[in-house]
Each structure stands twice: as structure tokens, then as C-alpha cells.
Amino acid sequence: VSEPNKTLKVKDAFDTAIATASKAGFVHDAALANETAGRYFLHLQKNGSDNASDDFWIKNYLSDAVTKYGQWGAKAKVEQLQATYGDLLRKDASDGETFQSGALHTTAVEPATLSKTHEIFNKLDLDS
Fold it and tell me: Cβ distance 67 to 28 under 8 Å?
């Protein structure tokens, strides 16, 4: 599998995880998936990826992570992401003041989707 195809497959897996978590009402999982996706594309960029769309995906995934963490009420996490990635965030990324309370949904998430997502996350080595 060529590198662009691999990257596209990983992006699709992240998007599926984010959409599934969001649909099921698991805001914190959607936030984590967005953060991990942003870090993945940042890792690719730092390791020589010349894909011009990496900037776009980094900015969007990390900004969406800030917004989702803000919706969940994780102010410390929002502040940590802003301190770490502030220059990479969209201007419209929530600062956590938009926390919306409400009941969490208990909609079932397909086990196969979660399993595949966890498998992909576990293969990623974002610290190297």
C-alpha cells in the first residue's frame, strides 16, 4: 500500500471513529479521536510528509478536539491543547466556554468499528 493510500485509509478510520463517537453521544471519545488524528498528521508533517493538505487536517482535527473537549467540560484539557497547539488552531475553536450540558446518549456503537479504531490507534507511534 502506497503512503498516500495508507494516509487516506488512516484518515477515513479517524473520521469513522469521530462520527461514530459523536453520533453515539460520546463527546470525550470524539475529542480524543480528533486530537489523535491531529497529532497523527502533525507527526507525518514533522517526518517529511510533503502533502499540502496536512496543514488543513492538523488545524481542523486539533480545533475540533478543543471544541469537543470544551463541550465535554474538560477545561484543563482545552487549556493544555491551546498552550501546546495554539498557533495551529482555527480562530473559531471553542475555549471551553461553550460547554453544553445534556444527557449522554447510550446508543450502541458497533463493536467492529470500535475494535478497528482501537487497532489503528494502537499501531500509531506518535511520540517518535
Answer: no
Are residues 47 and 3 in contact, defined by beta-carbon separation less than 8 angstroms? no
Helix axes 54-72, 75-85, angle to 10 degrees: 160
Which residues does 43 contact at the CB level (< 8 Å), separation at least 6? 124, 126
Set of cell numbers at residue 66:
478543543
* Total-model pTM: 0.72
- Successive 10-residue mean pLDDT values, the chain, 128 residues: 78 95 96 96 88 87 96 95 93 55 38 61 63
* Percent of residues in the chain assigned helix, strand, coil, to nearest 5: 70, 0, 30
- Select from 121, 110, 120, 26 the least CA-distant residue to 68: 26
Task: Give me the half-sphere count of Cα atoms (radius 13 Å) on the Cβ side of residue 102.
Answer: 11
Distance between CA atoms of residues 121 and 118, nearest Å: 5
C-alpha 65/C-alpha 62 separation (Å) is 5
